[in-house]
Design a protein that fits this description.
Oligomer: single chain
Number of domains: 1
Bound molecules: S-adenosylmethionine
CATH topology: Rossmann fold
Order of helices and strands: EEHEEEHEEEEHEHEH
Shape: globular
Number of helices: 5
């Protein structure tokens, strides 16, 4: 089955070379998004070697069921195999891999620890992202409830906060760069990349999550019309 990209066409004609504001919704430099509902292996197969400056990915860790109690929906939860990582490293120059402690990756001195401030003792206090950079490790403290919307809900069982992606982009990316996300989920990364001014290519295999993410991204990037 052929998947046409749902191109939100938020891209600039010319990639921005500098960023003037950090705030979501207040920066004049907006990125672009090309998102598809498909298996990430199919997406990556279309791209030449080292096409993407950076991949920031959040694959299923394969650790137990990812069950969304609010929406009673399972997401495809099998951890990706070696063929996934071979493709990821082929198409991207640098990689940030959430759940890197679950996967057989090379040694790295550079990790990001996300301290989530979970109030419940049966949830993890932190998550770890493996990074391909030769840089020091970082700890970021961003409440996991920062992923929630104004009504206190999320659209995805493992939705990460937009602020977490913004932090990664500000530290490891440059506006105008080509970024890859192979497991888009709720679209938090796309919202952060949009306001940061990077061009994101992304896919999500689950049609329901994909549709919900596209609606959310359109809604939460609508402020751009105030600035263009
Ligand atoms: C851990 S979640 C990502 C959550 C995301 N970071 C967020 O903030 O919402 C992993 C996502 O990958 C999707 N997925 C699983 N296997 C996939 C595949 N082979 N290709 C593309 N997406 C896949 C799942 O449906 C799920 O939405």
């Amino acid at each position: 089955m052929k998947h046409e990209p749902e191109n939100l066409t938020l891209a600039h004609d010319e990639p921005p070379t500098s960023r003037t504001d950090k705030g979501v919704g207040s920066g004049p430099l907006l990125g672009g998004l090309e998102a598809t509902c498909e298996d990430c292996m199919a997406l990556m197969a279309r791209y030449p070697d080292k096409h993407f400056d950076l991949a920031i990915v959040d694959p299923p860790y394969g650790a137990g069921d990812a069950f969304n109690f609010r929406y009673s929906k399972l997401y495809p939860n099998a951890a990706p195999g070696p063929e996934y990582f071979a493709e990821l490293f082929r198409v991207s120059k640098h990689q940030i891999i959430w759940g890197g402690n679950y996967f057989p990756l090379p040694c790295s001195r550079c990790w990001t620890i996300w301290e989530k401030g979970n109030p419940a003792p049966n949830f993890s206090d932190f998550e770890m992202a493996w990074m391909s950079f030769d840089k020091v490790s970082k700890m970021v403290k961003i409440p996991s409830w920062g992923a929630m919307h104004a009504d206190g809900k999320t659209i995805h069982p493992t939705q990460k906060p937009v602020a977490l992606y913004r932090e990664l982009l500000e530290t490891y990316a440059k506006p105008g760069q080509r970024i890859l996300d192979t497991h888009l989920g709720s679209g938090s990364h796309a919202i952060a990349a949009h306001y940061f001014g990077a061009h994101l290519t992304a896919c999500e295999i689950d049609p329901d999550y994909f549709a919900a993410a596209m609606a959310r991204i359109k809604r939460e990037t609508a402020q751009q019309t105030l600035f263009t």
